[in-house]
Amino acid sequence: MKVFITRNIPATGLQLLREAGIETTIWTDRRDLTPDELISRCKEHDALLSSGPNKIDRSFLEACKHLKVVSLLSVGYDNVDVEAAKTLGIPVGNTPGVLSGATADTAFLLMLSVSRKAFFMHKEILKGNWNFWDPTANLGIELNGKTLGILGLGKIGFELAKKCIGAYDMKVIYHNRGRNEEAEKKLGAVRVSFDELLQQSDVVSVHTALTPETTGIFDKAAFSKMKPSSIFINTARGGVHNEPDLVAALQNGMIWGAGLDVTNPEPMEPGNPLLEMPNVAILPHIGSATEETRAAMSVIAARNVIAGLKGDKLPHSVV
Ligand code: DGY
Question: Is the dihedral of CA 142, 147, 153, 155 positive or negative?
């Protein structure tokens, strides 16, 4: 049995695959595969282990009906046509749970960095502008006792809320379709409407999946309901915010700052005005990028491949 792997993965996952007698082919080019290249590679393999932005859409799945499993090295699966995979009977796996702590750390890092303009200050030092001891210039804002509003309170949001309560005694409100009883019980989180979340939060952090319902949900109308002193954080998917509207919201003082680990599009264009704003911090989609987390993700992804090739139920499946 052979698996095609679209980007190099940590050795722990590779070893599991090889110990199971599975032949591995890894795409090592720095560029992403085109859709046709992905199809032609997959035609020579029995399974696909995919990380990055490859579109696992209907035309790909129809061209590769023979695949016994598609295993994603991510928790998000907005790049997959789930209905098509179901209809064609191709199991799709993902890597939930193990990346919650690292991704919540990234949201926390952005929140604190934005609140103290840390990325901007660092850029100024690189330009030779060390002189910031002006008592009224470049002031940040404190997070202590503020309200954290989470859109999509699941495992990652839960981890972030715990950190914010522990570090800054923040009050947690959230907006989900259903209730998160565990978060209500253990963290005192309060479920509110989307508008209430926007109006009451000092920091809004996005942890929802990208779906037709959440695409562009942070637009001009949403930003205009937020506090002028608030910070917007997105470590989920860039498609959840409308980027020109975010730029305008920051320029017009509708919100105070923003921290993004995901942008729209990715990669961000070099001249994007967000890169020059003092109250903005941008990272290149590194939410889960730690040694420990990526190794754990590679193990789950490998186990999904092994199970799929045997015809067993995947340990973590979205289809
Ligand atoms: C995830 O796991 O969904 C990360 O964002 C990587 O795409």
Answer: positive
User: What's the CATH number where 12 sits?
Assistant: 3.40.50.720
237 and 182 inside one domain: yes
CA of 278 to the centre of ligand 1 (A): 27
Q: Pick the catalytic residue: 116, 207, 285, 294?
A: 285
- Would you say 84 and 58 are in contact if contact means Cβ atoms under 8 Å apart? yes
Domain count along the chain: 2
**What are the pLDDT digits (tens) for 11-27?**
999 999 999 999 999 99
Q: Which domain holds residue 38?
A: 2-98+291-310
Instruction: Write the ipTM.
Output: 0.94
Probe ligand 1: pick from 7, 74, 240, max atoms within 8 Å of CB?
Answer: 74
* pLDDT tens per residue across span 38-59: 999 999 999 999 998 899 999 9
Q: Residue 318: inside a domain, yes or no?
A: no
* 104 located within any domain: yes
